[in-house]
Amino acid sequence: MNESSKTQQHKTAEERATGVTTDALWGKQTELSLKYFDIGKHTFEMVFIDALVSIKRACAQVNHRLELISDEQVEAIVYACDEVLKGKHSDQFPLRIWQTGSGTQTNMNVNEVIASLANAYLSQSKQGDNSESNVFLHPNDHVNMSQSSNDVFPAAMHIVVANQTTRVLLPSIELFENEIRQKQKSFEGVYTVGRTHMMDALPINAGALLSAHGSQFTAAKQSVLKSLDAVYQLALGGTAVGSGANAPELFGQQAIALLAEQYELPFVQHPNLYAAVSGEETLLKFSSALKQLAAALFKIANDFRLLGSGPRCGFNEWYLPANEPGSSIMPGKVNPTQCEALSMVCLQVFGNDLTISLAASNGLLQLNTYRPVIIHNVLEGIELLSDAITSFSKNAIRGLALNQTQIDANMRNNLSVITLLAPQMGYDVATKIVNEAVQKNTSLATAAENLGFYSVAQFNELLDEQLNRQITQSQD
């Protein structure tokens, strides 16, 4: 029996009359959503609920400043919001992601819980008080005052994305950059076989290979940072269609200033509130930055996996950390498990981005009605990438080592090093030497001597000069 069925089965007479479960802080609108949208198990993360609650807190303070609610009312609303922000009452936000596309039901769920907590606070504070004050807080009239789900929900989306990016994703990115930088320094001076088209190519400095990974990753990080500029712009103050109806002048700007202070992030009001409530191009761009990050990571994971393949029948140039047994049947097997986990996360992010792209492109007129699925996928991408990057940094990059014996053997057998001599001997001569070496299974020097172009000693001397020149140039 699912959660909704249990709720309906155990209703008391009072609950049936009011439509609300007696031990719940939420109200009728939340209960109706539980009844009519019992779809899946995905619910909003508390970090998102906290963003909504923070908006309610800031709005109450501005409404009080504008003398729209009393001292008692703002005190009660702020108290209720702080209780939720302390981590209490997380079980009071049970609504599914799969609901109305505006997020109205979750906005009302938050309004109802805050109103219940605030009214309980007022009731408690009046015990023993003989005054006849009948202060009462209504979810719509007071907690949602000067707001609409259509500006509150997208504002919360931007707040939580900005906060999770700066507090969770960026630190994991910095960890990765530090680990790859340290490993790059330790690999400098070691030359290994370069490969293009999965075929032997010119030698490459092992440190340079990692520098390419680091540069790709840093470029993706810059895309994430750049996309945050628009994420900091909030729809708050636009209310239902972007016109600001039922909100006092400059209300949104004042509330956003309080949120910027709370989160210590540069939130500002969106320059066009009509666009802010009707479209989601900002989070589409942010998702694209996450996809770029995932693409760079996928490439890095594949390179680690290939260079660590073996130990006898693969490339076997890198020793990947043996964190856990690789096989339940093959003793001593080491698998590239960190690479596999990271790759799966990247694929999930690619899929999330497609969902976000479709959702962002399907807004109609004055409202995008795919916001719950957009924020669900964006937050999942941030969480998965943050965790996977941290895990890969600590459990794959940090313990990575070079197999110098295999690298030396591969370098001796690499026929593409003759490319360094092609300008001197000519492309056609170099090609003949390579073909001879392949057909007779000999070294390049022996092939050159067999064809009468150079003695073994002459060829090796020429090749050593060019290799040393390449090493000197790379170090400079």
- What is the general shape? elongated
Q: How are the strands of the largest sheet arranged?
A: 1-2
Helix content: 55-70%
| Most strands sheet | 2 strands, antiparallel
Radius of gyration: 31 Å
- The top level CATH class name of the largest domain: Mainly Alpha
Order of helices and strands: HHHHHHHHEEHEHEHHEHHEHHHHH
Content-based structural category: mainly alpha
Distance between the termini: 70 Å
Average residue pLDDT: 92
**Care to count the β-strands?**
6
Which segments are poorly predicted (pLDDT under 50) over 5 or more consecutive residues?
1-18
Q: Any idea how many domains? A: 3
Number of helices: 19
Instruction: Kindly estimate the percentage of residues that lie in beta strands according to DSSP.
Output: under 5%
The CATH topology name of the largest domain reads Fumarase C, Chain A, domain 2
What is the CATH architecture term of the largest domain?
Answer: Up-down Bundle
Q: Let me know the CATH homologous superfamily of the largest domain.
A: Fumarase/aspartase (Central domain)
Topology:
Blueprint: H1 3-9, H2 13-18, H3 28-36, H4 46-65, H5 71-85, H6 104-125, H7 139-143, H8 149-187, E1 191-196, E2 199-205, H9 206-231, E3 233-234, H10 251-263, E4 268-269, H11 273-278, H12 281-307, E5 318-319, H13 337-360, H14 371-397, E6 401-402, H15 404-413, H16 422-425, H17 427-440, H18 444-450, H19 456-475
Parallel strand pairs: 3-4
Antiparallel strand pairs: 1-2, 5-6
Helix pairs in contact: 4-5, 4-6, 4-8, 4-10, 5-6, 8-9, 8-14, 9-12, 12-13, 12-14, 13-14, 17-18, 18-19
